[in-house]
Amino acid sequence: MSKRQSPVEERRGEERRGAQKPQRRAAGGGRAWMRHHRAMMGDSALRLVKRPIATLLTMLAIAIALILPAGLWLALDSARLLDAELDESATLTVYFDADVDESEAMDLAAEVGGQPGVAGTRLVTAAEGLADFQQTLGVDDALSQLDANPLPASVVVTPADTDPAGVQSLSQQLQTLDGVDEVRLDLAWLDRLQQLAALGQRVALALALLFGLGVLLVVGNTIRLAVESRRQEIEVVTLIGATHAFVRRPFLYSGAWYGLGGGVLALVILLLGGNWLASPVAALAQSYGAHFALPSLGGSHSALLLLFSTLLGWLGAWLAVGRHLADIKPR
Amino acid sequence: MIAFEHVGKRYGGRFEALADINFRVERGEMLFLTGHSGAGKSSLLRLVMRLERPSRGRVLVAGHDLDRLHISQVPYYRRQIGVVFQDHQLLFDRDIFANVALPLTIQGVEPADAARRVRAALDKVGLLHRERALPIELSTGEQQRVGIARAVVNKPALLLADEPTGNLDPQLSADIMRLFEDFNRIGTTVMVASHDLALIARLRHRVLKLRDGRLIGDGEAA
């Protein structure tokens, strides 16, 4: 050790089992306890910094384990955004009989508009329908061969209630009106999308559990090696009266640092990855005529990720130290 | 200070390290524990330090029945005992000052107070000028003295030493023993395990003699 600062300032501390033995808590005991916490927080960080490559590799392993569930969660989040957009556009198309002419169609549209549960209507006359059809499909030539317009007039109904069951019953109700040929609604794919989202959430949860376990193992193994390398120190301090909490403390801080570092790396990688994917995703969305941007983790979610990863690191260290301290018995 | 009542210790259910040991040590006494290696000296000290529990009988130290001591109280018990090891058990990653300060660090003593007590202990063993040295830079005798400073920095009522002169030449051994006598003179109970019979004989203290796990002699060295 080349540093010349007072080692007492470097590591001091106190063990007090406050709840069980309050009489042992001398005046200033809490301060000594805080002092040891601070010292160990610094000391454990310093130990990690002294071995930058090994530390970085461990943190990277944690980051990768965090990125997979976090990335999937983001993907689901974006699917939910799409879902919401689609919910708003969940409309019914009411096709009138082919022999309904334009004025009758307007009357019928008014009647449909007066039905309960209908939030709005938009009439598409037979001529407009044909124009739309030609524009979207670009089949001018084929259609111009036809003598008469084969398309019926229709009205696009925006339901007041967008939940699938409500839309279904509205559709049955509109079906009974005179002059209505068919009511079309695309519920099946809405249903499927919702089921898919539910499935995705479960997969994300399962992955989060699995990779959380991975983080525990990575940190646990790293801490196990650290405990092994400081075995003599642990034996000596145990011999001269250190409590388990005292011995455990620096390792718990190491674990928390690993977790925090891994979390920060994960956030950075997610951010870089998001930027990298942003332009192709935007181009793809554009080609479908949709407005869609990759969501990114907001401030609160980022903080949550960091908290979670720090806690995981701490827990991994706690499990590893608990297991290995039992093995270390002073000779 | 220490009382052994019909204490026996077996390892693995077969090997009998100690059998029916009875003795009392009064507060402020100084005594030696002798016997060949394997006679049970270390086992006896380990019982006093509560590193082991007796298979039979009771060990009482300063009024505590060590067998009744809850596992969570053991660290607090050990803080009342100073221990000097044969291989001194210094930590090589920190300097002499930090090594001696370790017991105080564990107990959360105020840094200023701790520094004062560390310097007093180092002064006592004559190594105050080396407080910034690393253990590796010291001779074996000096390392052992640092180990003693660490054991007494806490002003323990009981000082145990396991072969403290095992690796030292006669002159250094005598110096170390004189240090123990000094601590005993200010009221510390001192118990030293040693097989350096010549040295023990010159010092005229009570001697407990062990052979094959049995106490075969208790009295001043002949």
From TrEMBL, chain A:
Residues 1-32 are annotated as: Disordered. Coiled coil: none annotated. Residues 1-18 have a biased composition (Basic and acidic residues). Residues 92-183 form the FtsX extracellular domain. It is found in: Cell inner membrane. It is a multi-pass membrane protein. Gene3D superfamilies: 3.30.70.3040. InterPro entries: ABC3_permease_C, FtsX, FtsX_ECD, FtsX_proteobact-type. GO terms for cellular component: cell division site; plasma membrane. Residues 207-321 form the ABC3 transporter permease C-terminal domain. The chain crosses the membrane at residues 53-76, 203-223, 256-278, 298-321. One of its GO terms (biological process) is cell division. The keyword Transport does not apply. Pfam families: FtsX, FtsX_ECD. Keywords: Cell cycle, Cell division, Cell inner membrane, Cell membrane, Membrane, Transmembrane, Transmembrane helix. Part of the ABC transporter FtsEX involved in cellular division. Forms a membrane-associated complex with FtsE. Belongs to the ABC-4 integral membrane protein family. FtsX subfamily. This is Cell division protein FtsX. It comes from Salinicola socius. The lineage of its organism: Bacteria, Pseudomonadati, Pseudomonadota, Gammaproteobacteria, Oceanospirillales.
UniProtKB/TrEMBL annotation, chain B:
The keyword tRNA-binding does not apply. It is found in: Cell inner membrane; Cell membrane. Residues 2-221 form the ABC transporter domain. The keyword ATP-binding applies. One of its GO terms (molecular function) is ATP hydrolysis activity. It is a peripheral membrane protein. Signal peptide: none annotated. Gene3D superfamilies: P-loop containing nucleotide triphosphate hydrolases (3.40.50.300). Keywords: ATP-binding, Cell cycle, Cell division, Cell membrane, Membrane, Nucleotide-binding. Its main location: membrane. GO terms for cellular component: plasma membrane. Coiled coil: none annotated. InterPro entries: AAA+_ATPase (IPR003593), ABC_transporter-like_ATP-bd (IPR003439), ABC_transpr_LolD-like (IPR015854), Cell_div_FtsE (IPR005286), P-loop_NTPase (IPR027417). GO terms for biological process: cell division. Belongs to the ABC transporter superfamily. Part of the ABC transporter FtsEX involved in cellular division. Important for assembly or stability of the septal ring. Homodimer. Forms a membrane-associated complex with FtsX. This is Cell division ATP-binding protein FtsE. It comes from Salinicola socius.
